[in-house]
Amino acid sequence: MFETLSDRLTSVFSSLRSKGRLSDADIDATTREIRIALLEADVALPVVKAFVARVKERARGAEVSQALNPAQQVVKIVNDELIEILGGETRRLRYAKTPPTVIMLAGLQGSGKTTLAGKLAKWLREQGHVPLMVAADLQRPNAVQQLQVMGERAQVAVYAPEPGNGVGDPVDVARRSIDEARRQQHDIVIIDTAGRLGIDQELMRQAADIRDAVQPDEIMFVVDAMIGQDAVTTAQAFMDGVGFDGVVLTKLDGDARGGAALSVRHITGRPIMFASTGEKLEDFDAFHPDRMASRILDMGDILTLIEQAQKTFDEEQAAKMAGKLTSGENFTLEDFLEQMMMVQKMGPIKNLLGMMPGMGQMRDQINSIDDRDLDRIAAIIRSMTPAERQDPKIINGSRRARIANGSGTTVSAVNNLVTRFFEAQKMMKRMAGGMGIPGMPGGKGKAAKSSKKAKKGRRVSGDPRKAALGKATAADEAPAAPKKGGALGNLGGKLPPGVELPPGFDPSKLRLPGQK
After folding, report:
1. Is 406 annotated for ligand binding?
2. Would you say 254 is a known binding-site residue?
3. d(Cα 494, Cα 4) in Å, to the nearest integer?
4. Contact at 8 Å (CB) between 490 and 497?
5. Nearest partner of 5 among 378, 289, 257, 368, judged by Cα
6. Annotation-wise, does 253 bind a ligand?
7. Which contiguous run of DSSP H or E holds residue 273?
8. CA–CA separation, 276 vs 287, rounded Å?
9. Fewest beta carbons within 10 Å, which of 5, 72, 354, 482?
10. Is 109 one of the annotated binding-site residues?
11. Per its UniProt entry, which superkingdom is the organism in (predicted)?
């Protein structure tokens, strides 16, 4: 969505890195480029003017003139202002003191309200709530049936007493749904209303009547992020006709310029609460202004990536896999398939890589990634026997031909997978062994010390008597423990030539450590 804007801003900031201090001319040139980038992204003109004025004012202040790295300070200023335009802080849902909490969805025709109702219901169910979806869109053909399908997919109940397709009173349905929610002990009610145009006074009045009948705790304006500056006009019309408390952006995964996200909040003064980034019910989450600003400036979105991983990966499986890797045990194709399936659950690979900092410079390579390649790899591994997955070394030519036929791929694809797996397995063994780095577990430092000890051998004393005693001890291949009552043990009771015991010394009374 924000690729064009992100690329333009990144190029603007890269030209500042070589400058040790910013002059007024540099600031003017930078803000001019920022203005052009925002206008090309379909951001509304009043928003662009306010944004550029704030950046220019702060860039000429003391925080930049006294900075060691002015370019980084300008990036920070732009990031702060983007966060401010997008809403500042994450806006959470307001819940009613006495259930049920009523949420009313309103928006244009085709903005994705019905699909969004299913996504919001599933998101709330995962938060521990028991939502009820209400089919109050009785104008659009098959809108009721679509909401019922969404309810089945999201495992959420749907209240649909009227068939729709122009039949029934949506205001009465919305009013009765509150009593139904109380009877069935649903703590949240999501009312899906009919889509309307900003100039459609009759449908706008109907939305206002539904609002007056149910007194919703939250009215959410659902806006298509791909409609550009028209979103501002539509939002203003809804604000005047119905009013709303928050904005939900849909189709953020599209290829439009995304100016609506930067415009609606500033024009209406209402925060963006949720964002929909795909067609699946899982492609939905709360909107975080700071994270969106980081993604626009190509600084990544690590927090969202971590949250997705925590929701997807099973903690016990992750701990088991981590233990296997650190202990140096064999990493099998079965383990590889399990990890790959977990990564796929997090979403498209392109989206995951896009959350990493600096990935905007590799956008062409990321866009060339096809998730179907992972499906082909999974098909190859599933076509193997359990023994082949545990020990790929047994996969000979005939086995590879069988696997290729079973997975619908070629023998060369099987060869490539097996070869790359062996390389990855070697790397993981090296990582488990510390990769030969001193100080790492299993690394070079410990082995070097033990080898030095082995090479050092027995040290010879400078005292001739002690040296002779040491040689005699080393000459005996199988030294025995000193006999009880014989302290000279392996010397056979004899002393080397030239060695004499002190006068009055009784060897039988000598006790070594460990003797009684």
Report:
1. no
2. no
3. 94
4. no
5. 257
6. yes
7. strand 272-276
8. 9
9. 72
10. yes
11. Bacteria
Asked if the peptide bond before residue 386 counts as cis, ω within 30 degrees of 0, the response is no
Q: Which run of H or of E encompasses 312?
A: helix 302-312
pLDDT of the chain along its 516 residues, tens only? 566 677 777 777 777 766 667 777 878 888 888 888 888 777 778 888 888 888 888 877 766 555 557 677 777 888 888 888 777 778 888 888 888 999 999 887 777 888 889 999 999 998 889 999 999 888 888 889 999 999 999 999 999 888 878 788 889 999 999 999 999 999 999 999 887 665 677 778 888 888 898 899 999 988 887 776 667 777 778 888 888 888 888 877 665 566 666 777 777 788 888 888 777 888 888 888 887 777 777 665 556 666 666 666 666 666 666 666 655 456 788 877 877 777 767 666 666 666 565 555 555 665 666 667 778 888 998 899 988 888 888 888 899 999 999 988 889 989 988 888 888 777 766 765 654 544 444 444 444 444 444 445 555 555 555 555 555 555 554 444 444 444 444 444 455 455 555 555 565 555 555 555
**Whole-model pTM?**
0.61
- Per the CB < 8 A criterion, the answer to whether 30 and 74 are in contact is yes
The DSSP symbol for 169 reads -
195 marked as binding residue: yes
- Across 186-239, the runs of DSSP E, i.e. the strands, are 188-192, 218-224
Burial class (CB in 10 A: 0-12, 13-18, 19+), 96: middle
Distance CA 83, CA 266 (A): 11
**Cα 250 from Cα 344, distance rounded (Å):** 22
What contacts 476, CB < 8 A, 6 or more positions away?
Answer: 490
DSSP state of 477: S
Q: Write the single-letter amino acid at 404.
A: A
Decide: 218 and 246 in contact? Cβ < 8 Å. yes
**Is residue 259 part of an annotated ligand binding site?**
no
Number of H-type helices and E-type strands within the chain: 23, 8
- Residue 433, annotated ligand binder? no
CA geometry: angle at 251 spanning 245 and 252, to 5°?
Answer: 85
Helix/strand/coil (H, E, C) string of 2-34? Answer: CHHHHHHHHHHHHCCCCCCCCCHHHHHHHHHHH
Where residue 87 falls (left for φ over 0; alpha for ψ -120 to 50; beta otherwise) is left
Comparing CA positions, the residue from 389, 403, 379 lying closest to residue 333 is 389
CB atoms under 10 Å from CB of 314, counted, come to 11
Helix (H/G/I), strand (E/B), else coil: 188: strand
435, 424 Cβ separation under 8 angstroms:
no
The tokens describing 154, both together, are 């999201």
Answer yes or no: is 192 a known binding residue: yes
Q: ∠ at Cα 295 (291, 299), nearest 5°?
A: 100
Name the one residue in this structure whose structure tokens are 């003797």.
515
Question: Is 251 known to sit in a ligand binding site?
Answer: yes
| DSSP letters spanning 80-91 | HHHHHHTTSSPP
Question: Is residue 193 annotated as involved in ligand binding?
Answer: yes
Does 194 show up as a binding residue in the annotation? yes
Any known ligand binding at 111? yes
